[in-house]
Amino acid sequence: MPGSLKEETALLLQDYFQHRGGGAALPPSATAATLRRAAAELERRERPFFRSCAPLARAEPREAAALLRRVAAQLEADGGLNWGRLLALVVFAGTLAAALAERGCGEGPRRLAEALAAYLAEERGEWLREHGGWDGFCRFFGRHGSQPADQNSTISNAIMAAAGFGIAGLAFLLVVR
Amino acid sequence: MPCRTLRKSAQPARQAVAECALELRRIGDKADLRQRILNLIAKLFCPKT
């Protein structure tokens, strides 16, 4: 049902925008928590670029929403959509929403969330459904590696396993020779 | 000439949108690939999780 996907997307985006703007409420769902975490990590890694985007939201919410749609359309014009591109688009929208809110435009974040939700659920709804909807997003970003501690643990496990194979290989060579 | 003025001011805006989309695409593709690799490593070395 496109309506429910659109509503779910709008709620998730509004929660992320509020959180980005300093809202202290707990995430309403596991998906919202995953979106907050993955988006915060991407924003932290690419902070100079996202900061440079804030001045683009100099106009009113309607114009910012139109800009967001133009960027979204060009973003996927080459190579389509993937979860990473979708996340980058959400963080970009969050940057515009935060900039509008800072300028005292309280309805800016809501308008941007609605515009992006309409774009994702209506124009890219087929792609979203094919990839499992927001549950698919959760599986992609939520399972491993979204938490820095998890990433360290996963990478440490990989390094330990590689070192183990290396030592076993050396021991084997010594025994054979 | 209003039309000409409009075209002139629209040009940098279009360029900004194109540059922004290009950079977001690069950032998104990098994040996607990074997460795919992390998921693959996790699948190989932590299959139970």
TrEMBL record, chain A:
Pfam families per UniProt: Bcl-2 (PF00452)
One GO MF term: BH domain binding
Protein family: Belongs to the Bcl-2 family.
Keyword vocabulary terms for this entry: Apoptosis, Membrane, Transmembrane, Transmembrane helix
Signal peptide per UniProt: none
GO BP terms, alphabetized: extrinsic apoptotic signaling pathway in absence of ligand; intrinsic apoptotic signaling pathway in response to DNA damage; regulation of apoptotic process; release of cytochrome c from mitochondria
Protein's name in the database: Bcl-2 Bcl-2 homology region 1-3 domain-containing protein
Membrane-crossing segments per the record: 158-176
InterPro entries reported for this sequence: Bcl-2-like_sf, Bcl-2_BH1-3, Bcl-2_fam, Bcl2-like, Bcl2_BH2_motif_CS
Subcellular location: Endomembrane system
All residue ranges annotated as the Bcl-2 Bcl-2 homology region 1-3 domain in the record: 35-134
GO cellular component, one term: endomembrane system
Main subcellular localisation: membrane
TrEMBL record, chain B:
Pfam families registered for this protein in UniProt: PMAIP1 (PF15150)
Top-level taxon in the UniProt lineage: Eukaryota
GO biological process, alphabetically ordered: DNA damage response; positive regulation of apoptotic process; release of cytochrome c from mitochondria
InterPro entries named in the record: Noxa
Protein's recorded name: APR protein
